[in-house]
Write a structure and sequence with these properties.
A three-stranded parallel beta sheet has the order 1-2-3. Strands 4-7-10 form a three-stranded antiparallel beta sheet. A two-stranded antiparallel ribbon has the order 5-6. Helix content is 38%, strand content 16%. With 280 residues, the protein is of the alpha/beta class. Bound molecules: glutamic acid.
Length: 280
């Protein structure tokens, strides 16, 4: 069993991260397996370099260890590019020239825009462009992202499921998040593509992460099949919330591990405060 904890170096860890790291470590330990640390740092506009070391320090202080050196997604852009090429060969991605503004305008114009778990989905504007128009706009240097054609991908993959250790087998809905971006205009990859490539290439067998990411797993299963990657198991764990029921954000310092540590809390007291790791 190989698990991973994958924080973004955009701030210090908080109690929610501590729980995610604990789930990954404890489930690996229970099965005599290992756990890896991966920095999700492709979004260069949000990361700050000092947080790589501070995150490792927070984890060490908590007593949560990992095997080997931490992987950085920013070192692996070539790998993501290769995967994108393979998806292009399958004709399941298309260039999207839309801006945030044109997408909003299109959604307002449409009588019934597609909807997902967190609001409107991409309305499909660029999905219907002709091959010539795409080629012309790319040749003219027009900035473009690459989106998954979720309907086509769903048809190619057929009926799929993923297996969540907390809630059991679930059918994959190819359109759950619509035509998601797989390569952003500015960074040539995206969370969805990078995480699927890394989990496969690092041979992760159990993906543990917060239940807020459950909708993404529908997309990830499609990508795994299209890229001929093995299917990992999943465990989407509960999220840690503050006293008002709001999930913790990196900018809320009150429940950061650094703050709790400075206020005299011990690592044991912090771990005790977290929910127990699901039995599975
Ligand atoms: N970076 C994500 C987070 O901190 C984790 C994504 C994942 O584990 O797939 O929530």
């Amino acid at each position: 069993m190989l698990t991973r904890f994958a924080p973004s170096p955009t701030g210090r860890l908080h109690l929610g991260h501590a729980y995610a790291a604990l789930v990954a470590r404890e489930l690996a330990d229970r099965k005599g397996g290992s756990s890896l640390l991966r920095f999700e740092d492709i979004d260069h506009s949000r990361i700050r370099t000092e947080f790589y070391a501070l995150i490792e320090e927070d984890l060490q202080w908590l007593g949560l260890t990992w095997e080997g050196a931490a992987l950085r997604q920013s070192d692996r852009l070539e790998n993501y590019n290769r995967a994108l090429d393979r998806l292009r060969d399958h004709k399941v991605i298309y260039p999207c020239f839309c801006t945030r503004r044109t997408i909003e305008d299109e959604i307002t114009r449409m009588a019934t825009a597609p909807h997902g778990p967190e609001g409107s989905l991409y309305p499909g504007t660029c999905r219907v462009l002709s091959t010539d128009e795409r080629a012309g706009r790319i040749a003219r240097g027009e900035p473009h992202a690459w989106r998954l054609d979720s309907e086509r991908a769903g048809k190619l993959c057929g009926d799929l499921t993923f297996h969540d250790l907390r809630s059991g087998p679930r059918p994959v809905h190819p359109g759950e998040l619509g035509d998601v971006v797989l390569a952003r205009k500015d960074i040539a990859t995206s969370y969805h593509l990078a995480v699927v490539v890394d989990d496969a290439e690092q041979e992760i067998t159990l993906v543990t992460r917060g239940e807020d990411l459950l909708p993404s797993t529908h997309v990830h299963r499609l990508l795994q099949v299209l890229l001929e990657y093995p299917e990992p198991l999943y465990l989407h764990h509960e999220l840690i919330r503050d006293e008002n029921g709001k999930r913790l954000a990196t900018r809320d310092h009150a429940l950061s591990l650094a703050h709790l540590r400075e206020s005299g809390m011990s690592p044991e007291a912090i771990l005790d405060r977290l929910p127990s790791v699901p039995a599975c």
